[in-house]
Write a structure and sequence with these properties.
This protein has 16 helices and two strands. The two termini are 33 Å apart.
């Protein structure tokens, strides 16, 4: 059985891997120059293969699943009922969907029709999001002040939504859900895995059967055999397509294995490594029928990404939680513990820099590949540090 020290303490490798995936996400999102190495960026939809950018997001999705058993058990230990936890799951899912929709629609805003520049609208939107969902300190004297900040954020969003207009005159449009955005996909994935764990607990076999079911849904969707459910796609398409749920559910399986394993910690890490290796094999077997494609959301891509994620996580679990070597990753641990802040806060800086035409992004040029890549690395690392700084001054998003 995993020793009492690991059972009682937070699994630090979870935070560290989340932080690492966020670092890489910020890095690849900043790499939109044509001269950067192809293996670092997204591959085209119809190309059979994947680059670093094609693994980063499913790597984070996988960690959402791994985190759920620890998060829900923590709430249960505090005395919350299953109904209270389910209400929290619904609220968190809706919050992620709302922020995701706001983010994808900020790119659609027509400045002339709205009477406000895209950069200003987006900056004010993010500020409103932070005012609403910030985790304010427990201070009775300042409780009314913090409540007023939340109300200010809500009013701010309402005003911004009133001003929002997209499209071209006379065909003016408002908000669209589209593909829900990155946070929306995370929201749907979280909803599935958190609900499953709330209902089934640590029962490994039924969880694995559900995982296989969603892999089957992903396969049927890719074969065009789920057209009968098309009427549900505008809202529940992410779940029906099976791709995102299959990724987060394998993460949940890993989380349950860590929590319930009766093996020694090293053997548990070895078991996870073997599971990752088997996932890679299954992914490459599925490649015989489905190309590896992030854009198309193929089952081969999902299984290969999960295989990579499990192998990396098992090594981190061995190094950080079993061998106790964690100082090297302190900045990633802090970023992983404040994942939403880490992901969103850099956008505020980004749009301020663009709006003021500051020469911060001088490295975005086509002549030097080294300058382009090293510049994006520095940007990602500095933004990780920025999120850590924000958390120290009590600016920390918590849904």
């Amino acid at each position: 059985m995993i020793n009492q020290e690991l059972k009682s303490n937070r699994i630090l490798s979870i935070d560290i891997m989340r932080g690492l995936t966020l670092f890489l996400m910020l890095f690849v999102n900043d790499l939109f120059m044509s001269n950067v190495p192809e293996w670092m960026v997204h591959t085209k939809a119809d190309f059979d293969g994947m680059g670093l950018a094609d693994w980063v997001f499913p790597g984070f999705l996988f960690m959402v699943g791994v985190s759920v058993p620890h998060a829900i058990n923590s709430r249960m230990q505090k005395g919350q009922s299953k109904m209270q936890i389910f209400v929290h799951i619904i609220f968190r899912t809706i919050s992620l969907l709302v922020i995701g929709i706001l983010m994808i629609n900020s790119e659609r805003l027509n400045s002339e029709l709205s009477g406000i520049s895209k950069n200003v609208w987006t900056i004010l939107m993010y500020i409103s999001v932070f005012l609403i969902w910030n985790k304010y300190p427990e201070n009775k004297k300042l409780r009314k002040f913090f409540l007023s900040l939340k109300i200010l954020g809500i009013i701010g969003l309402i005003v911004l939504l009133i001003f929002f207009k997209a499209g071209e005159s006379p065909h003016v449009t408002w908000l669209e859900t589209g593909w829900w955005g990155i946070l929306g996909l995370i929201g749907w994935g979280y909803f599935v895995v958190a609900t499953v764990f709330l209902l089934l607990g640590s029962k490994l076999l039924p969880t694995m059967l559900l995982w296989v079911f969603f892999i089957g849904m992903n396969i049927l969707s890719q074969l065009g055999m789920l057209e009968i459910l098309n009427f549900l796609n505008p809202v529940f398409g992410v779940i029906i397509e099976g791709n995102v749920p299959s990724i987060v559910l394998e993460g949940l399986i890993v989380g349950i294995i860590i929590k319930e394993s009766r093996l020694t910690p090293k053997k548990t890490a070895g078991t996870l490594f073997l599971l990752g290796f088997l996932s890679l094999i299954v992914g490459f077997l599925l490649r015989n029928w489905f190309i590896i494609s992030k854009i198309m959301g193929t089952p081969s891509w999902a299984m290969i990404c999960n295989g990579i994620s499990i192998i990396i996580f098992s090594l981190l679990f061995l190094i950080v939680d079993i061998q106790g070597k964690q100082k090297w990753a302190s900045v990633f641990k802090s970023a992983g513990q404040n994942s939403l802040t880490t992901y969103l806060a850099p956008d505020i800086i980004y749009f301020i820099v663009l709006g003021l035409s500051l020469p911060l992004f001088f490295y975005k040029q086509e002549s030097s590949q080294l300058l382009a890549v090293s510049g994006s690395l520095c940007w990602a690392l500095s933004m990780i540090g920025f999120s850590v700084l924000l958390s120290r001054i009590n600016i920390r998003l918590k849904l």
